[in-house]
């Protein structure tokens, strides 16, 4: 169904000039369609340093919440549709991306995840002389039945941010690894991504978050240095999707390293499943929350690849990954200990009755939709519109 975005702009009042609690809550909205996306934005006047996140949402209603930092919001309208690739032609609202420029993911929540407090002396810098002038809360509603007529119920889900106006010595950032692709029917399949880290800063991962939809079984992330694989984090995405402490304490990532992630799926359905923005599609995300000493974070925020059937770690050409050293636990659920072995292949029987040309087109459009849903900007929208 369609995606509808409500964007309500509110200026931070002088009471937050010295920090405090900042509520980002939906203003009693009534989403009317499954897979509706709603956004609420706050303009920032002064420098603030975010040190904690308290969610106010239930997984029965909200599929996920994402907090973005933006240079400018997608439109100046009070209400507009920025579900982008999940939008419908009969939407009552103008269309636009979540951010018109400078989109950065700051925080993510799903599956009734608890609150998060950052380590001592670490904060996300926003407002003031930072490149973030707006905070935008995005909520993906998966079940809107309780908001439909004749019900008068409304929703005020959102986040409470703990902030301070005092500069802190370590600045937090997010690096997101993800994959597009298609899962063959009745199979266990991997979606893999990897990128060389070519930054002039050293980042220190402190926590990680995984995200898939219902078919995901394990998501794992790694740093590869001189051919040695070191785990950053590994989790079942069916557990509460908050940020967890990294599994290798005191790990760092520096220029010349490689970052890699794998999402492992069990597609029990009798048809292929694509990556996409709705709850019936799939996603593959591994978020790294990190800090740097000082205020210069990594310029690159994302690492995406096209996924199966076209991309796996075998296709990486940015350095020596030493694939013989992939940890045997890369697809092992750390909660129950079950190890998932890939069974998918590229046969027409598993991928369905599609010609290669049809498969190329569908997978490319799926990939573009996926990038647009996670990196909302004008370039990804134009790429999709012009394909």
SSE topology sketch:
Layout: E1 9-11, E2 19-25, E3 36-43, E4 48-56, E5 62-70, E6 72-73, E7 80-81, E8 94-95, E9 99-101, E10 104-109, E11 116-117, E12 122-126, E13 134-141, E14 158-164, E15 170-179, E16 182-183, E17 187-196, E18 204-211, E19 216-225, E20 228-235, E21 244-245, E22 258-267, E23 273-274, E24 285-293, E25 302-305, H1 348-351, H2 356-374, H3 378-386
Parallel strand pairs: 1-3, 7-8, 12-15, 15-25
Antiparallel strand pairs: 2-14, 3-13, 4-11, 4-12, 4-14, 5-10, 5-13, 6-9, 15-24, 16-23, 17-22, 18-21, 18-24, 19-20, 19-22
Structural class of the helix and strand makeup?
A: mainly beta
- For the record, the CATH architecture of the largest domain stands as Sandwich
Any idea what the shape is?
globular
User: Could you give the distance between the termini?
Assistant: 22 Å
Q: Uncertain runs with pLDDT below 50, 5 residues or more?
A: 1-15, 353-361, 373-387
How many helices? The count is: 3
